[in-house]
Design a protein that fits this description.
This protein is an alpha+beta fold. The chain is 17% helix and 35% strand. Helix 7 packs across helix 8 (604-611).
Length: 702
């Protein structure tokens, strides 16, 4: 860890230690459950970037200026001005701009058209009775590769020419275009899903039951090199399941970033088309699972930028394929979360070096070997999109109790400034007296693991009143691999955050811990949970409870602790209440995994890297599944699930409830939502769900 980071961490800890609340806390007293979950939406609708126009001076985003869920498309000039609702009937076509920024290609009714970027001089270049889709420009902007009925074709946009590159059998998988290597060679792939399993998610709400069959599995992927002029197709690689590919501008090289199905092993394989050789540029293996990998060729040179966690933290590496040299560009106990080439000598990237709850933007100059930080506000930034001309960066920026808006930095400016593009938060949002969360960094029980935590204090909280002890509610974020404790308003859990604030006026302390498995804190932090999910996450949450108790003069009533969450958070609620019954006394589990075997078959992409194959290592699944411990449940739980959930099937809720019934446990509640999937869409369902959770905590923690 760098000395700079150590100093920042120490100062941050000191700040929070001396600023712990002793006096009564402000809370949003007028907030109601109906307001949280019904329209109009209190924080407004977040603008979601959709695309740039072809000239790159206007962005389009989904939004609603009246705080209702039914969004429309808005447009806004990067030069400034207010958003304007786009006339969707008069929208310019969704286009792909050529590398030289002079032309664009777009599709209309399955035919391909090419025009100048301003839309003039449009001409149809491909017209058939079949649909021609997924066009990809060659680096010299003269050719377009596209897909027709699963095969790859190439047309020249200057000279009349049409080439069929592949000719697959009817029972073969379709081809995908992974990119060009130069302007005469394509990198292609086929994904074979024939070994996938059919999983059923029945739908019950309509007149008849629909089986809801869905094919799930990790395909076998084969990569090919197709030379346009000679019509020669060579197999480059087969048998690696989770791989990406790229080709250099010169056409001298192609690279496949190959990973196995369980994400334990990675090889960056270089194909040198000058001498038809093959070599391994970089290797990485782990007992956990690979994450954050990426590869990108420089715009015009044979240099490759890639990211790797091999050092323990996700960092940038630069490879010269002409020499085989690999250089690590960034290092330290922080992560590079996003990166792009600006030109052959300049890299734009984002890191959390200053603090794990912040993200800042940097420009790295390769010629000078320097990195320049463009941002200074200690806030959270994400959802980065680079304009087609590489001159402007668009992103979401948020701060404590300030939902994100879209911002822009002009990367060509000598002294770039952050310019706020959208003003999407209604003024009424600030009428509520939102309490600022206490953002804490603390050390876990092992004396080494540093954790992030958010703490909210209830109305009237006063550490000097030793006669009062406060019940606690723990919120657990979903996904497992996610960061939700940071210096900003959560976009993933904005409803839950308002619900947590609602709990404050009813006397609860509310905490959230970014437990091990969360992203943004390095490889080991994420991978500690491999082969046993639930164990270390529970320890981290318990350590967070103890930290707050110790730093508030014992103001928490640790005999009245509730826990709730959805998806992975729902799994954690059930796991924790049985693994640590002395520490958790009531659990609300939403759309939860209770049996990891079910989720392995529904989503092996997620489960295989973390727990392995259940037929080979059943013990990993047994000890990680709340279903295993259901008969030991000592405290009340409430189970809430969408009946037609096609991510975590409602089977998990039913299996857990059946185990409780068969073990004679009557101390549980259950609510099934017939028309809801994994992410609820109906405000009435959201309200019903959290009304029940609130009443559940009131009954069992008061």
């Amino acid at each position: 860890m760098s000395m700079r980071f150590l100093c920042l961490t120490a100062l941050s800890l000191l700040f929070f230690l001396i600023s712990l609340p002793a006096d009564a806390q402000d809370v949003p007293e007028s907030l109601t459950l109906k307001e949280i979950f019904h329209e109009p939406v209190i924080p407004g609708i977040r603008p979601q970037f959709r695309y740039f126009n072809a000239t790159g001076d206007t962005l389009y985003f989904a939004w609603n200026d009246s705080s209702y869920y039914d969004t429309g498309l808005y447009k806004m000039a990067l030069s400034g001005g207010d958003p304007v609702k786009a006339d969707e009937e008069a929208l310019p076509p969704r286009s792909i701009v050529s590398p030289n920024n002079r032309f664009m290609v777009y599709s209309e009714e399955g035919d391909l058209y090419v025009s100048r970027t301003d839309g003039s001089a449009a001409r149809r270049i491909i017209a058939t009775k079949e649909r021609d889709v997924s066009p990809v420009w060659s680096p010299n902007s003269r050719k377009l590769a596209f897909i027709r009925s699963g095969d790859v074709w190439v047309t020249d946009v200057v000279t009349p020419q049409l080439i069929q590159v592949t000719s697959r059998d009817s029972d073969e998988p379709g081809f995908s275009i992974r990119g060009w290597a130069g302007s005469s060679r394509l990198i292609l792939s086929q994904s074979d899903f024939s070994d996938s399993r059919t999983i059923y998610f029945p739908e019950y709400a309509d007149e008849f039951v629909v089986p809801g069959a869905s094919s799930r599995g990790i395909p076998d992927v084969t990569f090919f090199s197709a030379h346009i002029d000679s019509a020669r197709i060579d197999t480059l690689l087969t048998g690696w399941n989770r791989s990406s590919a790229a080709g250099s501008y010169s056409g001298n090289f192609a690279v496949i970033d190959a990973a196995d199905d369980s994400l334990k092993s990675r090889e960056i394989i270089v194909y040198n088309f000058r001498d038809n050789s093959e070599s391994i540029l970089f290797e990485d293996t782990t007992d956990g699972w690979l994450s954050g990998t990426s590869i990108r060729f420089a715009p015009r040179t044979d240099r490759l930028l890639f990211t790797s966690e091999q050092s323990g933290w996700n960092h940038l590496y630069l490879a010269n394929l002409l020499t085989g040299d690999v250089q690590q560009l960034t290092s330290g106990e922080f992560e590079i979360t996003w990166s792009r080439w600006l030109d052959d000598q300049t890299i734009l990237y984002v890191s959390n070096e200053a603090d794990y709850g912040e993200r800042h933007i940097f420009i790295h100059n390769l010629r000078e070997g320097t990195a320049r930080q463009l941002t200074s506000d200690d806030t959270y930034r994400y959802q980065f999109v680079l304009s087609p001309d590489n001159e402007n960066l668009i992103y979401a920026k948020t701060d404590f109790n300030r939902p994100y808006d879209l911002y822009m930095i002009d990367l060509t400016a000598e002294d770039p400034e952050e310019n706020q593009l959208t003003q999407s938060v209604p003024g009424s949002f600030y009428d509520y007296n939102w309490q600022d969360e206490q953002y804490v960094r603390f050390t876990g029980r092992d004396g080494e693991t540093e954790l992030s935590m958010s703490v909210l204090y209830p109305e009237g909280f006063d550490t000097r009143d030793s006669a009062t002890e406060y019940p606690v509610v723990v919120f657990v974020h979903g996904a497992g691999s996610l960061q939700n404790v940071y210096k900003g308003w959560s976009n993933n859990y904005w409803r839950e955050y308002m619900f947590n604030q609602y709990l404050l006026k009813h006397g609860y302390v509310v905490i959230e811990v970014d437990y091990r498995h969360s992203t943004g804190y390095g490889r080991k932090f994420r991978e500690d949970v491999t082969n046993w999910m639930g164990k270390y996450e529970t320890e981290d949450i318990v350590d967070g409870l103890d930290w707050v108790e110790n730093h508030t003069d014992g103001a928490l009533d640790l005999g009245r602790v509730g826990i709730y969450g959805g998806s992975y958070g729902g799994f954690m609620a059930l796991y924790a209440v049985t693994a640590e019954p002395e520490r958790f006394h009531a659990a609300a589990a939403l759309r939860k995994v209770t049996n990891w075997r079910n989720y392995y078959y529904a989503n092996p992409w997620y489960t295989l890297p973390r727990l392995g194959n259940p037929e080979e290592v059943p013990e990993h699944y047994d000890r990680s599944s709340p279903l295993t411990y259901a008969s030991e449940l000592q405290h009340p739980v409430i189970l809430l699930h969408g009946l037609i959930d096609d991510n975590v099937g409602s089977q998990d809720a039913f299996q857990y409830a059946e185990e409780l019934v068969q073990s004679g446990n009557t101390n549980f509640e259950m609510m099934i939502y017939p028309s809801e999937r994994h992410g609820f869409s109906d405000p009435d369902s959201w309200y019903d769900e959290y009304f029940r959770i609130f009443q559940f905590f009131e009954e069992h923690l008061k």
